[in-house]
Design a protein that fits this description.
Radius of gyration: 31 Å
CATH superfamily of the largest domain: Translation initiation factor 3 (IF-3), C-terminal domain
CATH class of the largest domain: Alpha Beta
Number of domains: 2
Strand content: 25-35%
CATH topology of the largest domain: Translation Initiation Factor IF3
Shape: rod-shaped
Oligomer: single chain
Structural class: alpha+beta
Number of helices: 4
Order of helices and strands: EEHEEHEHEHEEE
């Protein structure tokens, strides 16, 4: 226990006001213009006079760069920017369908309807043909089942790559055709 240090846990974000450790700082005013290099006490007094916070913007610079801003308002604007960025990001979903080599015609139609619905929602579809037991000796039937599934879907989907074997499965990924073409 004699080896432990007593220090405060690391905080999130930049250091503000009296948490800034430097003796001198390069100060930037609330309007964005450079004030110059000042002792930390003088910079803190200026912040207090204006009713703002002294925020360490660039701690690695010599001397560290600090700015006079309302820290609460600054954090609020940062969270709003993060929310906006999160809203704009697009999550591409990958749906999966499994077939067997000896699938019936009606079952293929059902699978096609699922694929059409998912593609209209802009999702990728991963189609797998599962081979069990002796079906492995008839891989050509799996290719034929995939070909049957693809008939009627050519106008709305494209294959990401040619079908390939992954262990006992024949796999192909289908992408929605883009509107730009």
């Amino acid at each position: 226990m004699g080896n432990q240090q007593t220090r405060t846990p690391a905080q999130d974000g930049p250091r503000i006001n009296d948490r800034i450790k430097a003796t001198e700082v390069r100060l930037i005013s609330d309007t964005g213009e450079q004030v110059g290099v000042l002792p930390i006490r003088e910079a803190l007094m200026r912040a207090e006079e204006l009713g703002l916070d002294l925020v360490e913007v660039s701690p690695d610079a010599k001397p560290p760069v600090c700015r006079l801003i309302d820290y609460g308002k600054f954090k609020y604007q940062q969270s709003k920017k993060a929310q906006e960025a999160k809203k704009k990001q697009v999550v591409i979903e990958v749906k999966e369908i499994n077939l067997t080599p000896n699938i019936d015609k009606h079952d293929i139609e059902t699978k096609q309807n699922h694929i059409k619905r998912w593609v209209s929602e802009k999702a990728r579809v991963r189609v797998g043909v599962k081979f069990r037991g002796r079906e492995m000796s008839h891989i050509d039937l799996g290719y034929k089942a995939l070909q049957e599934l693809m008939t009627g879907l050519e106008d709305i989907v494209t294959q990401e790559a040619a079908p390939r074997m992954e262990g006992r499965r024949l796999v192909v990924t289908l992408l929605p055709k883009s509107d730009k073409v």
